[in-house]
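As described in the Methods, two query proteins were run sequentially through the folding procedure within a single session, without resetting any intermediate state between them. The first query and its resulting structure tokens are shown here.
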Amino acid sequence: MQDTAKKYEFTGLTRTVEGRKLRQIRALRPLELSDVAAGEVGGWIEKEANLSHAGECWVYPDACILEDAVVEGDCRIADRAVVRGRARLSGFILMDDDSEVTDDAVVENVARLSGSTQIYGAAVIACGQDGPQILPGIQIDFDVSYGQEYVTFGTGYSGYLVAVSSTGRVCVAGTYQTERWAGTVQEFEVWAAQYADDPEVNWLAQCVRLYAQQQGLT
């Protein structure tokens, strides 16, 4: 009998990476935020402890999680991204391209890792919902901490996530439709105007506008 608490199973296919046998996963139920359908195959993990069954975290084809690394929350590991060592990812972390998190590194809350970005050593990326903006190709082995107050607005269907800090900084987590973006409240209005035909972006723009007015950020 299928365990309904689980969100993925193993397909039976395996591949070897640096002497370690990884197993491919397949979704047992739809993951709306991660845009994954039930029955859709994903990427590769070494063991079930690598990828939590809770939340909507997911590893996409070609990406992998191995050794004692743990991914949980709503993180997305895509393209050729790798999480390994004793690394731990939680919150809303988007990894793609050839990015890698390894050793004892911790990345939590909201961040986007792309290009050949590497987070390693004992680095702790513990950011607020307004950052950090980690540029492609950056290598980080030190701690980054963001403690500003913030509010977040999100939509389930397309996976938009917009954060507004108490200082008026706006951050948009990239989706499969849009690139990540950051700027002021006024600059956000210009950004949102590019997607005037998208009802979800319009809704988010209204939320940001109202919050900014309430907080005196405009």
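Immediately afterward, the second query was submitted; its sequence and tokens are:
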Amino acid sequence: MTRLLPWTVALCLAIEASPPALGAEPTFRVSEGGAEARNGLSLDQALTALQSRLADPDPRGLWVFEQTDARPLPAPPRMVLLTNGDRIPADDITLADDRLTATIDNVGVPQTLEWPLEAVRGVLLPASLETGRPRLARLLEGPGLPDDTLLLEGRDRVAGEIVEATTEEIRVNAPSGAVEVASNRVRAYALSRALWRENSSPTAVLVITTHGAIHSAKSAVVRGARVTLHCEDAGDVVIPIHAVARLTSYGQDVRDATQLPRDEATATPYLPARTPASAATVRRLFGAIPRPPVLANRHYDGGLLQVRGRTYARGFGVFSGTALRLRVPEGAERFRATIGIDDAADGGGAAIFRVLADDREIWRSNVQTGRDAAAEVDIPTGGATTFTLAVDYGPGGDVLDLADWCEPVFVLESGFGDEAAAVLTKP
């Protein structure tokens, strides 16, 4: 079976532009860098602001467009996880002829999406909803597996080469021969990491929709009450404005820290007491599916980054006792991020966030708990070559310390960033 396909992704999204009939007219919020946010924008005001930003030939800074109190749509039972970090909720998924096809019908009009297999990390299926979905997502979005693998109920696995997958069954060429497995027995399937193609282009626009999809694009425009995303090798992806929960526009002078080369992170387990809480933490840290000290673009239990109800598509999820060293890009003048304890901690957790420049502390937060509002980091780089993002234990030890560094970016000084630099995306 040959899978040496060019990087092409075809997405066909046909979505009506009219907002949902029920509920009040949506309002919007716009923020840029460290400036005060503009709240309570009407649809017309929001579209004007968004159109102005996306039409700017030389955008600068980190610009965020959000729908206030967006009503999330029910999540479809399946999820496609892509190699570039995008997530696509879907109703039906099939794999055949070296391509993965998904259909979605949760915004009023059916949509069809198609990818070559080297663009796909794996797929979460309905059975995973009751059996450790975050852990499966963490496995598929982490280092991956050397072979195509079906993850079954009871932690059984079937490894080999997936040749076809439908809503009824999945066929695998295993070392022992052809195997057919009923789809309702499969919690997820992973595609071999040997197939993955790393994304080498920086993201200019990132969209989170109200039904939980994440789309990254090279550029975007506003047409009527819709946002049209220009995705790499994917054509146009059209999303109605009422389905946009959050849109982040990266200026030419902004470097997304999650897409920059970084050194290995270190973690120091907290084990001072023989208590049930610390024992549970140890089991979570060193369970059947090991996890690295840092998870990119998701919190440390595997879900999307979310702090006080606001979801972020990019960032680092860590546990307390973790330090991540970043290499500061040339020309970087400032570092910005939003920090806090993830909502997955359900109000628990307490940790201290620190930033070190060339191993010297330059910023420290107060103790952040799972009930505190998110805090903003906006500090000069001071010519440092490395930045270390550290999270220390709070007064409660390590219990529920799901610490998030959301939308961490370096902002370049004037004269840099006129051309987008090539960056390395790590899984």
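The radius of gyration is 21 Å. We note this only descriptively and draw no conclusion about the first query from it.
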